[in-house]
Amino acid sequence: MLTELHTHTIFSKGTKLVVEGIDGPEQMLKTAKLKGIQAMAITDHDTIDGYLHAKKLAKKYDVFLIPGEEVTTADGHLVALGITDFIKPQMSLEETLDVIHKQGGIGISSHPFDLKKCGLKEKAQYCDAIEAYNSINLERISNWKARKFAKKWKKPVTAGSDAHSAEMIGNGLNEISAEKDVDSIIKAIKKGKNKITFRYAPISVVRRWSVIRFKYAYEQTFSHINKNYKGPKKQLSLAMLNLVKKSPGPIDYPIQALACFGVSCSIIYSGVRELIGI
Asked: Does the model's pTM come out above 0.90?
């Protein structure tokens, strides 16, 4: 069964940039159906509201829905699958896993070594599985570290599109040997009965997602820059922010170039960090 295990809807909210997911649950389900995906977990940040909305529509699109949430634990991000109730954030990893297991679910360490340091890092060893393939970890090294770490601790691995827009769906998929049943899917993941299909999200797709996020959160971001930045940093940040107002259009070409430059820098930075052991 072709399964998408890591997605976000408009119910996912960020901290520095309030907008995370940019498409609603129905658009996510519709796109999953169009891409031949048979089962999908909606794993919004610290809420199950996206899942609850999607649950009403899943039969319409013939996509089996797995209840989920990406929980911000005190130690890092954790994808909870197969849960029955909301899992509150900021508990320790151990407490969070205990609550998940009591609900009959599993905890998957999402992007454990990501550059933003949102992952669980070495604490991923305590999870039921490790997301070793995350499609928006564009610098590559963090995924390599996750795979190496999972092999060391003999943990099952999963792929995740970490889709924050419908366009991102399908980049990290799992062909799971299971029935269309939550318990069956969970047991299969724990036993490693899944074949991974993976590719990195195209930079153009990530760029479109980023531009839309800044558009939706323009006023909040503008206010944040004015309050917290000074001098050249402030002026440059405001100039960069104003570019999104001109998209879509010819401005997308220099924005794409900047995005490619940023990804290249992140690859180099991540590689150097790994070499010198930071």
From this structure: yes
